[in-house]
Amino acid sequence: MRTSQFFFTTLKEAPADAEVVSQKMMLRAGYIKRAAAGIYTWMPLGLRVLRKVENIVREEMNNAGALELLMPAVQPAELWQESGRWEQYGPELLRFKDRHQREFVIGPTHEEVITDAVRRDVKSYRQLPIHLYQIQTKFRDEIRPRFGVMRGREFLMKDGYSFHTSFEDLKREYGNMYATYSRIFSRLGLRFRAVAADTGSIGGTGSHEFHVLADSGEDDIAFCPASDYAANVELAEALAPANPRAAATNTMKKIATPGKMACSDVAEFLNVSLENIVKAIAVVGEPDDGNKTFALLLLRGDHELNEIKASKIAGLTNLRLALESEVEEYLACKPGYIGPVAVDGKKVAIFADRTVAAMSDFVCGANEAGFHLSGVNFGRDLPEPEVFDLRNVVAGDPSPDGKGKLEICRGIEVGHIFQLRQKYAAALNCAYLDENGKSQIMEMGCYGIGVSRIVGSAIEQGNDERGIVLPTAIAPFEVCIVPMGYHKSEAVKTAADELYAQLKTAGIDVVLDDRNERPGVMFADMELIGIPHRVVIGERGLKEGQLEYKGRQEAEATMISQADILTTLK
Ligand code: ATP
Ligand code: MG
Ligand code: MG
Ligand code: MG
Known about the structure:
Elements: H1 21-28, E1 32-36, E2 39-42, H2 44-63, E3 67-68, E4 74-76, H3 77-83, H4 85-88, E5 94-97, E6 103-106, H5 111-121, E7 130-139, E8 154-164, H6 167-187, E9 192-196, E10 207-213, E11 219-223, E12 230-232, H7 234-239, H8 244-254, H9 263-270, E13 277-279, E14 295-299, E15 320-323, H10 324-330, E16 338-343, E17 348-352, H11 356-359, E18 365-367, E19 370-372, E20 407-421, H12 423-427, E21 431-433, E22 439-441, E23 443-450, H13 451-461, E24 463-464, E25 467-468, E26 479-483, H14 490-505, E27 510-512, H15 519-528, E28 533-537, H16 539-543, E29 546-551, E30 558-561, H17 565-569
Parallel strand pairs: 3-7, 14-15, 26-27, 26-28
Antiparallel strand pairs: 1-2, 4-6, 5-6, 7-8, 8-23, 9-10, 10-20, 11-12, 11-20, 13-14, 16-17, 18-19, 20-23, 21-22, 24-25, 28-29, 29-30
Helix pairs in contact: 1-13, 2-6, 2-13
């Protein structure tokens, strides 16, 4: 590209209402123009960056086995009514009517549309798993759009949705996406951290966010340098209820069919010693067959008894055995989160200390009379649940995993992955026929990346007093050629044109600043807009076959021979 044929305008000063550095720089560099609150035009220069980010995301998603499609921005209200979110979503959902008074929304996310598409086309287990994604414009009527493209109302998101025949397979894909996201953010040259996260209004079980580390971030992240523990502090607001006892009691009320059996009988039936029944757990959920279920009995980690057909156990239907690690995974909680546990052969009870509400699923007790799934009295039968409340956490507090001390930093949420399980598939009856010709509800995951937010986040991490500093992978151009006297010196013009052609042929994304501007103006512009490599061509150097090279963040330029410039830049 030649600047004379490009269109960009730079500003000396950022608009007074710009709050954070990336927003100021993007406006000054002419990446974006504000159209309305939280709504921006991506100018050609900014669009180059956006597209580079988008393409890295697309490439990695394709490599990971996901398939791209494109869904509409406008979605019919009926689908949102079917999922229940028409009522639940609130004012962030932009609703409108067409000329026939039919109701629509502008999509803030696409679970409903994709689930509708999949339920119509996928009939058999043979067609699963499938992962479909898009890179598409979303609209959320944010109460406080700010920080430029970082909290826009209209923004670009990569959203992927996967469908499976089993929770096992969903977890496999979730792991695949966790790894893919880590690769994407590494390729983008970002300093980031994956953290355990709240499931928010999208709902479901099991979720991680990916945060770009920056002081301007809106989220607090608690992490333990001694272990891999990291959580969004917001998580605690959702998972530590004000009254854990009430949450647990409500849960117990929801459990419909209490079952009874003496602990010793259970042990005998399973052919394990009583000590091996370390924990008992009841999980109410919608398993493969769509019925409410209880998963009960947590066995010591090395036991492989989860295959046993436990339905024989008196009075309990759909009883399943689970290993501790499996339950932890199901609850998306870290090892050690399930507790406290009381086992003395007479009483067995557990609860996840700080995840009571998230599971809201869960409580199980046993006494002399046997196992039962109701009637635990906290304080009398069991200790009060301890709630680890991250909301009040300060640096230096012990990490919930007990492995060290917590540190706190700020993060910008750029990615979010969820195990939705059957939340949407059940509501929209997204079913397939299994090997036995039986209809089953699909398991589902969803995976979002804030493509446009990434551009702002990258600039939050990469800037200096002269402007934007971007990694080569996403800079608007990789190299700029700045000729000293392009319009005055034939030698300079020839050398600049030749180098420009040579770099283009080599596949380098190069811009030649052939404007008739003073050198100072050209240097300042190229630095402001974030070009990582600069080559200056001047008459004096050319006489000795030399060009001047400078990296965006280097203090001094170096002279390089014309013959070596290509290898330097590659
Ligand atoms: P936030 O907590 O910042 O409001 P979210 O949790 O509501 O984000 P998700 O529903 O998880 O967002 O959407 C997936 C991704 O889309 C987010 O991780 C984020 O990167 C991006 N995103 C969400 N809202 C916005 C927005 N208003 N502007 C730009 N990007 C956004
Ligand atoms: Mg939000
Ligand atoms: Mg969030
Ligand atoms: Mg989120």
